[in-house]
Design goal:
By secondary structure, this protein is an alpha/beta fold. It folds into 2 domains: about 90 residues, AF1104-like, CATH 1.20.1700; about 240 residues, Uncharacterised protein PF01937, DUF89, domain 3 (Rossmann fold, 3-Layer(aba) Sandwich), CATH 3.40.50. The strands form 3 sheets. The protein has a 7-stranded mixed β-sheet, with helices on both faces. A two-stranded antiparallel sheet has the order 1-8. A hairpin with a 2-residue loop joins strand 5 and strand 6. It starts with 6 loop residues before the first strand and ends with a strand. One of its GO terms (biological process) is coenzyme A biosynthetic process. InterPro entries: ARMT-1-like_metal-bd_sf, ARMT1-like_metal-bd, At2g17340, At2g17340_3_helix_bundle, Type_II_PanK. It holds the Pfam family ARMT1-like_dom.
């Protein structure tokens, strides 16, 4: 993780960091709430993280890079579970009151203290290899759609279908370990439009004008998400003449793709001429966001990302953690898109939608 002195605010944030910006979409508590009493929303989300412990423990137990992995996995489960129970008794314990960022950070800290660096590495590698083998076919199917508006909608649906590969959701982790995931089936089974937030038609109008010269995409998961969802979409942006910056995590967290993994994936997808299926990829850049969580606080990003993003005219936050749970209402100095699938019932309830509903929130710059 980069040192705090190297972290800066994301330069395109319009929401003032000092007064209004907070990386938490769902209000866990209000100023009028008793600071010593856990709120119903805090309790609800503490239970979400409690329910995720078995799947994390299972992954940690099988981490062959860690000596005594089963014993350490048990310690993780006990220690993290105790902290979550402490929050129920006193929300100000452990640096609280709790929100999504703090609950994620404490989980990662405990894992790393016990020697677990990347407990999802094996499944990420497997899913990346599988998705790379499908990339050509997915791109060819997209390219065969002559109508530009329909092609864009198909690319967007691909992002949603890929975003299902999320092992931070207890329900999806269970489904994945039991049945695996099919990208094509996920595309076909998406929640039909209109989605819970659906600004796709407005986005199409702006897309047709081809005015975006530089696009920054905060990417999410490994596997189908990045390779079959984001890359075909980014390739289309490149074909339209835009420069694309993919911002990925500095350190592993759940099955999120990291900066170094992203560089390796791109090397495998490019041909010997540096092209992505016939499209010049010289304008495709990769940035280390400085982040180490499955959510993101835009008041702290790497200086490199801040420099690369400073003149962007479109910012995309992809995935439930970055685009929905922490930054859905964040405002930017340029156009912005928050896109992701709703994979927690608690988020669906807050948005007034359904589980596995889709969020496509597009805002034009003022």
């Amino acid at each position: 993780m980069e040192s705090e002195s190297e972290m800066v605010a994301f330069p395109l944030l319009l929401t003032p960091i000092e007064t209004n910006y907070r990386a938490c979409t769902i209000p866990y508590r209000f100023p009028s709430d008793n600071p010593k009493k856990v709120t119903p929303t805090e309790l609800q989300w503490i239970d979400v993280f409690l329910n995720s412990i078995p799947s994390f423990k299972k992954r940690a137990e099988t981490d062959s890079t860690v000596p005594d992995a089963p014993l350490r996995a048990e310690k993780f489960a006990q220690r993290y579970g105790d902290i979550l129970e402490d929050f129920k008794k006193d929300p100000e314990s452990h640096g609280g009151p709790p929100d999504g960022v703090l609950l994620c950070r404490l989980r990662e800290l405990i894992l790393r203290e016990l020697g677990f660096v990347d407990i999802f590495k094996k499944v990420k590698d497997e899913e990346n290899a599988k998705a790379i083998s499908l990339f050509k076919n997915v791109v060819q199917l997209n390219d065969a759609i002559e109508d530009e508006a329909k092609r864009l909608e198909n690319l967007v649906k691909g992002i949603f279908a890929g975003n299902i590969f999320d092992l931070g959701s207890a329900e999806l982790a269970e489904v994945f370990s039991r049945d695996g995931m099919s990208f094509s089936a996920s595309c076909q089974n998406l929640t039909p439009r209109p989605w819970v937030i659906d600004d796709l038609d407005t986005f199409k109008v702006k897309w047709n004008k081809k005015t975006w010269k530089k696009v920054v995409i905060f990417v999410d998961n490994s596997g189908a998400d990045i390779i079959l969802g984001i890359f075909p979409f980014a390739r289309e942006l490149l074909r339209c003449g835009a420069q694309v910056v993919l911002a990925a995590n500095d350190m592993p967290s759940i099955n999120d793709v990291t900066y170094t993994e992203l560089i390796e994936i791109i090397a495998k997808l490019k041909d010997e001429n540096g092209q992505l299926m016939g499209v010049d990829a010289s304008n495709l850049l990769v940035a280390n966001s400085g982040n180490d969580l499955p959510v993101i606080d835009l008041s702290r990003v790497s200086q490199v990302l801040a420099y690369l993003a400073s003149d962007a005219d479109l910012v995309i936050l992809e995935g439930m953690g970055r685009g929905i749970e922490t930054n859905l209402y964040a405002q930017f100095k340029c156009d912005s898109l928050k896109i992701g699938m709703v994979k927690h019932p608690e988020v669906a309830e807050f948005l007034g939608g359904r589980l596995y509903d889709c969020v496509f929130k597009y805002n034009e710059a003022e």
